[in-house]
Amino acid sequence: MAPAGRRTFTAGAAHGYQARLSQFYHNTLRDDLMVLQYTPPAVRARQEDQHRAAQADDAPSESAPNPQRRHKSKMPRPKVPRSTAHNVPFVSKVTVHIRCREALHNKNHLLSALMALQVVTGKRAQLIRAKSDAAAWKLRKGMPIAAKVDLEGDDMFEFLDKLIEVVLPRMKEYHGLRMSAGDGNGSFTLGFDDSVIGLFPEMEMVYDMFPLVTGFSVNIATTAVRNPPGRLLLSGLGLPFLHARKPASEGQML
């Protein structure tokens, strides 16, 4: 039995291994996130009052019905749950996606993207086919056009560790994600050009074996319900964010 007061984790227990980034999250970052997101009761009550007031403003008035306003009414805003030890933001899934336009003319080019994903992630890539026809692109329904890999658990943390600690520092012109990045529900997407995939350690020795390399995107899905908690989580894991700088005034320039 584990000593009293010490946490035990089941992740990686089957094979006796746990990713470094996963250990850092469970041992250090999770407690820090819970403290940083703590909201005093007085502030929480004021936020709930503002939430109820916003819902009342969005609701249509019964005394003076307006059909135009009824059609343009917004969806009810979801309530932000109270921060507790059970809902601390966590990275739930990472999806690595590659779209190969050259596959429209030659399907063999997609094989290079599939193998590159397998080398970088260590998992077998899934083939993505077109769902509809597009005459302008000479695309027919069912044609293979992309590939993706879904990562979870230790594989997800291993990939994020390589991306944050090895790949991003090697990029010369990468300054971080914008503060406005995110889909509003705690998920973030990073896009990279074709020169970045060669920065992974697994690709350095076999890069010349790939006749075609393309850009790729990384989607990081978190359990956060808003962008700020998700941004706080990724920042704690080491992903840089770019703060917008205000232009200097004439007095400051002098």
UniProtKB/TrEMBL annotation:
Keywords: Ribonucleoprotein, Ribosomal protein
Basic residues composition bias: residue spans: 68-80
Biased composition (Basic and acidic residues): 45-55
GO molecular function, one term: structural constituent of ribosome
InterPro entries per record: Ribosomal_uL5, Ribosomal_uL5_C, Ribosomal_uL5_dom_sf, Ribosomal_uL5_N
Protein family according to the UniProt entry: Belongs to the universal ribosomal protein uL5 family.
UniProt protein name: Ribosomal protein
Organism in which the protein naturally occurs: Coemansia javaensis
